[in-house]
Amino acid sequence: MIPFVAIDEAKIAPFHPYGVCVAVAFFVWDHVLMKLAVRRGFDRADFRVLTLWIGVLGWAFAWGVDAIFYHPGQSLGPRFSVQGLSSTGAMVGAVVGGVVWSRLYVRKDGGRWRASRRAAPIALLPVTEVVLATWPCAFALGRLGCALIHDHVGRAVAPGSLGSLLAIGFPRTAEDGLHRVYGPIHVITGASDVRYDLGLLELMILAPLALGFALTWKKDLAMGTYTIVSSLVYGPFRFVLDFLRPEDGPTGEARQGGLTFAQYWSLAVIALGVVLLVRRRRRAKDTGAAPPEPSAQPVD
Fold first, then answer.
1. Residue 239 maps to a domain
2. Residue 208 falls within a domain, yes or no?
3. Are strands 193-197 and 168-170 parallel, antiparallel or unpaired?
4. 3-state helix, strand, coil in the chain (%, to 5)
5. In this structure, is residue 164 part of a structural domain?
6. I want to staple 97 with a disulfide (CB 3.0 to 4.6 A). Which of 37, 57, 135, 227 is the partner?
7. Residue 279 and residue 206: Cα distance in Å, rounded?
8. Residues contacting 10, CB < 8 A, separation 6+
9. What is the mean pLDDT of the segment spanning 241-269?
10. Distance separating alpha carbons of residues 68 and 172, to the nearest angstrom
11. What average pLDDT score do residues 205-229 get?
12. Cβ neighbours of residue 212 under 8 Å, at least 6 residues apart?
């Protein structure tokens, strides 16, 4: 059983552990994303517009998906908080933002912002490769914040079972378990409510994925590698992970047809990875070698 670790917010005020992790994630991702985009031949100003599309539509879809699919029937009023957003909804919004950017050219001309339709849409796979090569870094840091505040509490696990090795003992009361305090860090062992912490479990897969991708940023990988690996690693993991989510109670999440929105999205992601992998193998078989990586075609 994994110890329960929490941060005493009163001792680090006005900072919040989740907010700090999200802020660090944003700046780290923005830096490595833009650096890799320029290295791959994209125009910096044009790619910056892409990040704005991803940001705006990502936040909008994150809120919308959470409200519609995870909390149906509740008021859609001004219920906007960082912790009440759907990560898979943000991914859907990012995809929509990428499609819009690939067809609409927005630039600043003569001190005014202008938009025009691109002569030809920009191929999405080279763009997706840059985004997904750097995405696990930001997502892992975000899930670290989730793990510190324990905002994704999963199903209960029988103490002493095999599953409890990956579960956390959550204290039921202030006196539950053995408490150790190291400044603002509280470590509790032996607590009685043994449950999965889904943020921590997701961090366990995202951290090595982020490290592995970072070690390959300067290498010439075949086009589609990051997309295929991300789809076939994260997709199945997220699909299985959501079975550990409770359906009822304060942390329960709604399902449609027995699956969560994230699981349907995961199936689509897995299908994308399989299609890209099959296409790559067919091309390699036809040409006798792996297909070369195409260069980016940024707009002047």
1. yes
2. yes
3. antiparallel
4. 55, 15, 30
5. no
6. 57
7. 26
8. none
9. 87
10. 31
11. 96
12. none
Asked if residue 101 has pLDDT above 60, the reply is yes
Q: Find the angle CA(294)-CA(31)-CA(11) to the nearest 5 degrees.
A: 150
Q: What's the rounded mean pLDDT across residues 177-189?
A: 95
Q: What is the distance between the alpha carbons of residues 147 and 167, in angstroms, rounded to a whole number?
A: 12
The answer to whether 25 touches 134, Cβ cutoff 8 Å, is no
Q: What pLDDT sits at residue 67? A: 85
Angle at which helix 124-149 crosses helix 198-214, to 10 degrees, equals 140
pLDDT of residue 118: 94
180 within domain boundaries: no
Share of the chain above pLDDT 90, in %: 76
Kindly state the average pLDDT of the residues 50-78: 82
Please count the structural domains in the chain: 1
214, 132 contact by CB (below 8 A): no
Residues in CB range of 207: below 8 A, 6 or more apart:
140
Q: What whole-number distance in Å separates Cα of residue 254 and Cα of residue 218?
A: 42
Strand partners, 153: 197
Is the overall model pTM greater than 0.85, yes or no? yes
Domain housing 68: 16-149+198-287
